[in-house]
Amino acid sequence: MSSDTPVFLITGASTGIGAATARHAAQAGYRPVLAARSEDKLQALAQEVDGLAVRCDVAEWTDQEALVERTLGELGRIDVVFANAGFGGPRGFEKNEPDAMREMVLTNVLGVAYTIRATMAALRETTGHLVLTSSVAGRRALQGSLYSASKHAVTAMGEAARLDFNDTGVRVTLIEPGMVDTPFFDEPPKMEALQADDIARAVMFAVTQPPHVDVNEILIRPTAQPT
Which pLDDT does position 188 carry in this prediction? Predict the structure, then answer.
């Protein structure tokens, strides 16, 4: 693979929004790098999109370092980073198990911060693009929702990273989906929800803008979602 081929790194790539974005990125001419803890699903997707599959627990700094080192070692560059790994939980602090709460914060907050930290130098080198998955829940508090709090943190990190990248040409975009019908939910949504492809198209819209256009936020809800 030529080093001129742009590289699109995605965490949480094994299913849902991450997998859909990998397919769209491949169609747009990027070489996808697929990172997740589910290695078997990654390998199947990597064959489909001619991508590089790397097992990575985003809450482990050594995994993130190894992900970036392998990507640069095999493909020579990183042009887009999509920090998409994350998971939710029940609303109501008393309904959350303490261990699950800890894992959520480590994945949804520390994991995103680690991805930013690990890829900053590579993105500066290519004048690349950082994309973060936040949520509608990262714009307004939900009752008893630690997930909402974690996504508020991601929303803040998006602006913090944009300021950190100031004057480098690197762009930063927050993607803030409403209800999406993905394996994220234990039961299918009752409304006509967004599909993973809908979010992937939003990601690609931001990434494919001219270099002087920095789409900072995309808040995208299903038409039927009232709040």
Answer: 58
